[in-house]
Write a structure and sequence with these properties.
Layout lengths: L1 H4 L6 H15 L7 E4 L7 E4 L9 H15 L19
Antiparallel strand pairs: 1-2
Amino acid sequence: MWADSLNDETHTAVIRYETDLALSRTGKDVGTPILTFKPGQPNEGSFFGPVISKSPRGDEALKLWDAVETIATTSGVAELKRSLRSPLDFS
């Protein structure tokens, strides 16, 4: 199955377009994920991240999402970064 898809370029153009669009919004010195909030609006905000060591659940996930959106759509915020503080937890 995977071998059959190796040379299949069905989605190549879409992936290239979306990648170029994301990088045009953030700059090319970032990784993934790239999130965009409120695309096409005056307060559109795009950035790389968040990179998290453990996935929040329930209300904590909503709280994180709201905070990320607030930071992304606040005019003048260029970067928020720190080193990894805890080991990765995939539970």
